[in-house]
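Onboarding guide, step 5: your first structure request.
Type a short instruction followed by the sequence, for example:

Predict the 3D structure of this protein.
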Amino acid sequence: MTTSPSASHFKRILLKLSGEALNGPQGFGIDPDRANLIAHKIKAVRELNVEVGIVIGAGNLWRGQIGIDRGMAQPIADHMGMIATVMNGLALQDALERVGIPTRVQTAVQMNSVAEPYIRLRAVRHMEKERVVILTGGTGNPYFTTDTAAALRAMEIGADILIKATKVNGIYTADPKKDPTATRLTNLTYQQVLASRYEVMDMTAFTLCQENNLPILVLNFEAENDLINAVKGDTSVGTLVSATGTL
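The system replies with structure tokens like these:
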């Protein structure tokens, strides 16, 4: 793939997508149109010569808590969720390949006939060769969320930042749907997040980022240009969380 000189603020990113990003109008499952939309957004980032790793959730296919609430053992519920992330990863790989972006799916839950096993150095090498790498299967262990998997993989592959793609344009002082006076915060330190109990990621994931000084950017993936603008260094997009509140 021929790419233009980089205009990006970052060399390598880890993009955390929710499984719901693949939802169609029905509110669940995998919608090929949504996969195609996501693929075009990621293609725009790759065209800035940015190396991209992706961790995707499985909430569009399975929520383990539903099973747990009905008596299912959590390891079984969690493993079902891990397998569902592989399904989402394969759907996204297909969409990316169809728009001309070489892509590999790696999984922490081995299923060699459909995806590579997760190997850190192989994932890094794929990205160096201009391939997007979708890192599925969570951490490979129950009791950990895909947020934690995203934080872990971001550190393992040496990402400059973890971008958490959501449906809101950052972190607010309160729930903007319930409190009309809520205001968006553009910059926060890890300590400010903890002191104010802002919901950014689950605590295990957040602590991993804090202890390893990995910046987190929360942005609205649904906004047409927020992802590409953030990658270009637009500090008005989303909410940045880091040790100092800056990069």
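Each response can be followed by summary notes, for example: Residues 196 and 205 are 17 Å apart (CA to CA).
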